[in-house]
Amino acid sequence: MSKIVVIPGDGIGKEITESAVEVLKKADAKFNLNLEYEFKDAGGTAYDKFGMPLPEETLNACKNADAVLFGAVGGNKWDNVKAELRPEKAILGLRKGLNLYANLRPVKVIDSLVDNSPLKPQLVKGVDLVIVRELVGGIYFGDRCESEIKNNSERAWDLENYSVPEVERITKLAFETAKIRRGKLTSVDKANVLATSRLWRRTVNKIAENFSDVELNHLYVDNCAMQLCVNPKQFDVIVTGNLFGDILSDEAAVIGGSIGLMPSASIGELTSLYEPIHGSAPDIAGKGIANPMGTILSAAMLLRYSLHAEKAAQSIESAVEKTLADGFRTADIYSDGFNFKKIGTVEATQEICKRI
């Protein structure tokens, strides 16, 4: 029996996680996965119930699970909540509490959605890359000051720092990921300016000595951002720090035509967390129009990385691609003037289940 903790969160989180669980149950019936589910609160929903965004009960349940399926947190309802109690603190708390040190963001452009990309079709057709982002270090987890007076002026600051073991751990995972793909790794930093980036680059080069079968190259982050627009097919695996990875992975997601389609995995040493990259979209919550495919594809990653159920994962991914190839579109990827069938969250889930 494999135990999955499901955290719907806020906004459309309940709808999209319900869809993903339905698809997982369909895959379970086909491949005898023997899955069980436990539902827990986090984010604004948890704050409303318990006065905190990440209850200890939720964190403990996640620690004892084989995997965590996460929806989304946040919304303007909680804009005036104290900074330390904001819904977004839930995901940061989970990353730290579960030591989710690496975020994997696959970006694969499906043939039937090439025209949805803001880039020219010849640039995006065939794009298949993974961004490996360090997730528990860097500027997001460094010391900070919200406000202080220096030289008679108010200022704030955030400290960026990385240790060699932190860089070694994420780099090894990135090399191992590249090794089972096309054998190319791009490390992204700002070594011409930042001391942390110079340590990052030295460490990556040292680890590379153990992976002679993987081609390594380095790019500055500004050049990488440009290259993702002008020649995204050059990339196989990209590894980078927390801040740069946050920005580049969202940029890369747009290549595929909609962030509603993009999954992610946050890898930990004990358990891992899987979530779509989009937000909670409170403006469409409860309307039944949210695209569940990013969450469903995250569930496929859960099967692949946490439960080692590769055939089941491929079955879900293939079902999503077939659904799109057959012309079904949720509102975020629907266009008039084509022979598309506009569907909502429930209908999309049903069509995908039919094709598993």
Summarize the structure in words:
The protein is of the alpha/beta class and 356 residues long. Helix content is 39%, strand content 22%. The chain has twelve helices and 14 strands. The chain has helices at residues 13-31, 44-50, 56-63, 89-97, 121-124, 164-179, 195-208, 221-230, 242-255, 293-305, 310-325, 345-354, and strands spanning 2-9, 35-39, 67-72, 100-108, 128-134, 144-150, 153-158, 184-189, 215-220, 237-240, 263-268, 273-276, 328-329, 341-342. The strands form three sheets. It has a ten-stranded mixed β-sheet with strand order 2-1-3-12-11-4-5-10-8-9, with helices on both faces. Helix 1 (13-31) links the parallel strand 1 and strand 2. The longest helix has 19 residues, at 13-31. The radius of gyration is 20 Å and the shape is globular. The model has no long low-confidence stretch (mean pLDDT 95).
Topology:
Elements (H helix, E strand, L loop, with lengths): L1 E8 L3 H19 L3 E5 L4 H7 L5 H8 L3 E6 L16 H9 L2 E9 L12 H4 L3 E7 L9 E7 L2 E6 L5 H16 L4 E6 L5 H14 L6 E6 H10 L6 E4 L1 H14 L7 E6 L4 E4 L16 H13 L4 H16 L2 E2 L11 E2 L2 H10 L2
Parallel strand pairs: 1-2, 1-3, 3-12, 5-10, 8-9, 8-10, 13-14
Antiparallel strand pairs: 4-5, 4-11, 6-7, 11-12
Number of helices, counting only DSSP H or I runs of 4 residues or more: 12
Overall mean pLDDT: 95
Rg (C-alpha, Å): 20 Å
Mind summarizing the main beta sheet?
Answer: 10 strands, mixed
Distance between the termini: 21 Å
Secondary structure: helix percent: 25-40%
Percentage beta strand: 15-25%
Order of helix and strand elements from N to C terminus: EHEHHEHEHEEEHEHEHEHEEHHEEH
Structural class: alpha/beta
Q: What is the tally of beta strands?
A: 14
Q: Low-confidence parts, pLDDT < 50 over ≥5 residues?
A: none
Q: Write down the overall geometry.
A: globular
Order of the strands making up the biggest sheet: 2-1-3-12-11-4-5-10-8-9
